[in-house]
Amino acid sequence: MDSCTSSDQCASGQPSACELQAKMKQRLGRINRKILVMSGKGGVGKSSTAVNLALALAQEGYAVGLLDIDLHGPSVPKMLGLEGKQLRNGPDGLLPIEYLQNLKVISVGFLLSSDDEALVWRGPAKTGLIQQFLRDVQWGDLDFLIVDCPPGTGDEPLTAVQTLLGNDQNSGAVIVTTPQEVALLDVRKSITFCRRLEMPVLGVIENMSGFVCPKCGEVIDIFKSGGGLQVAESMKAPFLGKIPMDPAMVQAGDNGKPYLALRGETETSKTYRQIAASLMQSPAN
């Protein structure tokens, strides 16, 4: 309670800043590792990566939380088939939606009355909601909290970094990109953002790297491939792997069934599991 400026603050009827801070610290202290899934540019498959990495970790038996802070475009409920679910209050805060027994989910999408509703908020309101999701949700004991951030380096990822990580060198960010140069330019900005905030970069994932033929399963480099690896090497960041485009990935998201739940033995699913395995054990850089 060192942040209190007077005894009146903690004696008032409303929770004081120091009490809220203590509650936040207590909640986050029960989460072993926090992993932010970020991208410098939209449309690179960041949310599908976050969902499938969370599922891969949960399938390994870890207790996992999935927090969707893409407040203006929450897609996690759709990808998990959880549309229409509403958050409920428990004895000690909001109860996350359970997708699996060991996979809990929170998204602003659970607070909206319909899929067409738009969240028209400025920065302070968004910051407050993200902090509430971390402070007032009964996450319980988690091995991993996967945070799906919106693209860019604005209010939401900044709030998540400052609130979640602190000096926690066991946690960090995963940066998702596509091979095209227009996306790679923004990846460099994301890595610089992380390092300016002294947040460890756990690695770079190159998504949509080649195309999986739906008939033969061969991966064909229709566009580019390898750009993510080049950026990772030039920025001295770990490279976690390449995930090809697979038509089944689009179908899985649209049908509310994660790719890993439907396609467990493909090269794409194996890559997701390999990336998850590296996150289980690799130190942050």
Strand content: 15-25%
CATH topology, what is it called?
Rossmann fold
Q: What portion of residues is helical?
A: 25-40%
What's the end-to-end separation, in Å? 33 Å
Q: What attributes does this structure have?
A:
nine-stranded mixed β-sheet; alpha/beta; Rossmann fold; globular; two-stranded antiparallel sheet; 285 residues; 11 helices
Descriptive account of the structure:
Keywords: ATP-binding, Hydrolase, Iron, Iron-sulfur, Metal-binding, Nucleotide-binding. Homodimer. Pfam families: ParA (PF10609). Binds and transfers iron-sulfur (Fe-S) clusters to target apoproteins. Can hydrolyze ATP. The protein has one domain (22-279): P-loop containing nucleotide triphosphate hydrolases (Rossmann fold, 3-Layer(aba) Sandwich), CATH 3.40.50.300. The protein has eleven helices and eleven strands. The relative contact order is 0.17. It is α/β, with parallel strands linked by helices and 285 residues long. Strands 1, 2, 5, 6, 7, 8, 9, 10 and 11 form a nine-stranded mixed beta sheet that branches. β8, α7 and β9 form a beta-alpha-beta unit. α3 (46-59) packs across α11 and α5 (123-135) packs parallel to α6 (155-164). It has helices spanning 7-11, 17-28, 46-59, 76-79, 123-135, 155-164, 181-196, 227-234, 247-255, 259-262, 267-281; strands spanning 31-38, 64-68, 88-90, 93-95, 97-100, 103-107, 142-148, 172-177, 201-212, 219-220, 239-245.
